[in-house]
């Protein structure tokens, strides 16, 4: 133990998302999402894995809620599946879908765990994708409509709402590299998608305000601290623009009401991004929020030619380098540049080659060290004035890691996929102590 005490009432938590854990892909009127389509397309996911069953959380949620209570979690971040609430993304809500989330929320509250719900974690209803998905401005309005149904059913029972999980990942992985749903490769179009995601965020904030709810709301951005790979002027300039695309595109529009000039100039006046912006959009996008959710996994080192370079140990995730100071840097930077908005860390974690041992033990010492070092960095940020109120480890359970399928295990809790039995990893037992002591 490092002996780092956290502020009283610090919100120790864990995070999941609907498609990654729920399974029950056809239950109770759920419609298909882009991730059903993508994962069922040959060659799109490792081993052809899909979220059809995932960790069967839809049926096993009572056991999972008990696991959370056992760990002493104070906060649990989950997401709501749009196509459970509106099978084809429009129209009257599906009560059976909403009832599932009511059971989750009530189950959390009964166990003294604060629910934190994400409205969109990448699972666009396929029927909307068939009409253009986030390429289409209309999807932002459909999203606002969906959020109204969700607020009507759950609004005040969920004290913290998050709008859109990692818009940047949809833009980059869904529309540039194409290794996530909907699997497109169209870089100019990707930034039109970015604008519509941001618009959807702003409309969802306004929709919550319109209900008069006292619940809080904010965006969830994966932020990547960008560092120059050398001390040349060219590397500094390339890093600045890289940062524009990784961070400021989202932060500036949501928190300052304008897109960064360097990104707009780089896109050009005839770009889909610039052409999709209408009068008043930035005012909607920058509707005041109550908190900002930060997800941090890795730094990026930018070379003079605008490429990237590896500096630190990598992990089982090809894109991740281990750099705990990056957590400190990004939290302090966000507070300095966009403060004093309260912050929550909504994701941070490490994939490990976990194996179930003879005593049902999983000895994930690397994950314990990773979390300890990142918690310590967050502690240092708090000590330096960052208003960080909670921290959610990705993930509560091993789950469907998108294109990597079940091959990457990110959980505090191990899942034996053949039997769906859950086992606490060493990291879960360690985290339980951290929470109980409120000290790392
Ligand atoms: C984040 C996603 C989350 C999970 C982790 C590893 O980008 O939000 O669903 O895949 O990465």
TrEMBL record:
Concerning InterPro entries, the annotation shows: GH, GH_1_N_CS, Glyco_hydro_1, Glyco_hydro_1_beta-glucosidase
- What is the catalytic activity of this protein? Hydrolysis of terminal, non-reducing beta-D-glucosyl residues with release of beta-D-glucose
One Pfam family from the UniProt entry?
A: Glyco_hydro_1
Q: Which UniProt keywords apply?
A: Carbohydrate metabolism, Cellulose degradation, Glycosidase, Hydrolase, Polysaccharide degradation
Known EC number: 3.2.1.21
Q: Which GO terms describe its molecular function?
A: beta-glucosidase activity
Coiled-coil positions are none
Question: Which top EC class is named for this enzyme in its record?
Answer: hydrolase
Residues annotated to bind substrate:
20, 121, 165, 297, 394, 401-402
Highest rank taxon of the organism: Bacteria
Residue ranges crossing the lipid bilayer per the database entry? none
Q: Name one GO cellular component term.
A: cytosol
Q: What is one process in the GO biological process aspect for this record?
A: cellulose catabolic process
Q: Can you tell me which residues form the catalytic site? A: 166, 347
Q: Which family does it belong to?
A: Belongs to the glycosyl hydrolase 1 family.
Protein name (Swiss-Prot/TrEMBL): Beta-glucosidase
């Amino acid at each position: 133990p490092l002996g780092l005490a956290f502020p009283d009432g610090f919100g120790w938590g864990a995070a999941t998302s609907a498609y990654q854990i729920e399974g029950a892909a056809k239950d109770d009127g759920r419609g298909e999402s882009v991730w059903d389509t993508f994962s069922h397309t040959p060659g799109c996911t490792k081993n052809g894995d899909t979220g059809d069953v995932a960790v069967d959380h839809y049926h096993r949620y009572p056991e999972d809620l008990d696991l959370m209570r056992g760990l002493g979690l104070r906060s649990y971040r989950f997401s709501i599946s749009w196509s459970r609430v509106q099978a084809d993304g429009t129209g009257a809500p599906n009560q059976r879908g909403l009832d599932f989330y009511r059971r989750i929320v009530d189950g959390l509250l009964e166990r003294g765990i604060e629910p934190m719900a994400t409205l969109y974690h990448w699972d666009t209803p396929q029927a909307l994708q068939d009409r253009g998905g986030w390429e289409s401005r209309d999807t932002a309005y459909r999203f606002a409509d969906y959020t109204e149904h969700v607020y009507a059913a759950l609004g005040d029972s969920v004290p913290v709402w998050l709008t859109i999980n990692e818009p940047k990942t949809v833009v980059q992985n869904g529309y540039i590299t194409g290794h996530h749903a909907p699997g497109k490769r169209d870089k100019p179009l990707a930034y039109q998608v970015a604008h519509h995601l941001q618009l959807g965020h702003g409309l969802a904030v306004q929709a919550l305000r319109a209900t008069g709810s006292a619940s809080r709301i904010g965006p969830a951005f994966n932020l990547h601290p960008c560092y120059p790979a050398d001390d040349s002027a060219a590397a500094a300039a390339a890093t600045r623009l890289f940062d524009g695309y990784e961070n400021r595109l989202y932060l500036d529009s949501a928190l300052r009401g304008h897109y960064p000039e360097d990104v707009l100039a780089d896109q050009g006046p005839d770009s889909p991004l610039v052409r999709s912006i209408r009068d008043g959009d930035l005012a909607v996008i920058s509707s005041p929020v109550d908190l900002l959710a930060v997800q941090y996994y890795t730094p990026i080192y930018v070379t003079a030619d605008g490429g990237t370079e590896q500096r630190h140990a990598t992990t089982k995730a090809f894109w991740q380098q281990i750099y705990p100071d990056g957590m400190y840097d990004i939290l302090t930077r966000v507070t300095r540049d966009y403060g004093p908005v309260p912050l929550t860390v909504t994701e941070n974690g490490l994939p490990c080659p976990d194996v179930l041992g003879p005593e049902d033990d999983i000895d994930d010492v690397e994950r314990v060290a990773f979390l300890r070092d990142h918690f310590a960095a967050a502690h240092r940020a708090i000590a330096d004035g960052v208003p960080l109120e909670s921290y959610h480890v990705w993930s509560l359970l091993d789950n469907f890691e998108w294109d990597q399928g079940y091959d990457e295990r990110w959980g505090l809790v191990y899942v034996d996929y053949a039997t769906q039995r859950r086992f606490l990893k060493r990291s879960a037992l360690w985290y339980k102590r951290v929470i109980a002591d409120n000290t790392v």
